[in-house]
Amino acid sequence: MRKLFIVAFLVFTVQFTYAQFKITSPVKWSYAAKKEKSGEATVYLKATIAEGWHIYAQNGVAKALITSFNFSNGNGYVLVGKTIEPKPLVKFEKVLKANVSYFEHTVVFQQKIKMKSAKVSVAGKLEFTVCNAKECRPAEEVQFNIPVS
């Protein structure tokens, strides 16, 4: 009985500790697509960033900090050009001793595709680093799958 009590206590303690210290990302991603008459479509990847945090642009910053997109080889579509982003904010980062490009609040990245069939699904993963004035979190990787029809 004592062993059962100890095991139950440890399980409860671990679950409580895990729940209390579970790290949630200050960035939420959402996706959309818009089909065009030309047989092309644009895929939108939107980051909503919590107040006080920022993510880095695709260029203009140390390689380890950039936001990057890796699209799976599409069955039914091909990528047209590179992923585009709006003009980022730029500031001098003392720690890096360089100007860095970043986004706050929200940012929408866009990727054009040429569709080979009427319905496709654009899949892949994105990677980003989120920072605030005190800390940078380890790079996060997010899988996505965006239907285009």
From TrEMBL:
<keyword id="KW-0762">Sugar transport</keyword>
<feature type="domain" description="Thiol:disulfide interchange protein DsbD N-terminal">
    <location>
        <begin position="37"/>
        <end position="144"/>
    </location>
</feature>
<dbReference type="InterPro" id="IPR028250">
    <property type="entry name" value="DsbDN"/>
</dbReference>
<keyword id="KW-0813">Transport</keyword>
<dbReference type="InterPro" id="IPR036929">
    <property type="entry name" value="DsbDN_sf"/>
</dbReference>
<protein>
    <submittedName>
        <fullName>Sugar transporter</fullName>
    </submittedName>
</protein>
<dbReference type="Pfam" id="PF11412">
    <property type="entry name" value="DsbD_N"/>
</dbReference>
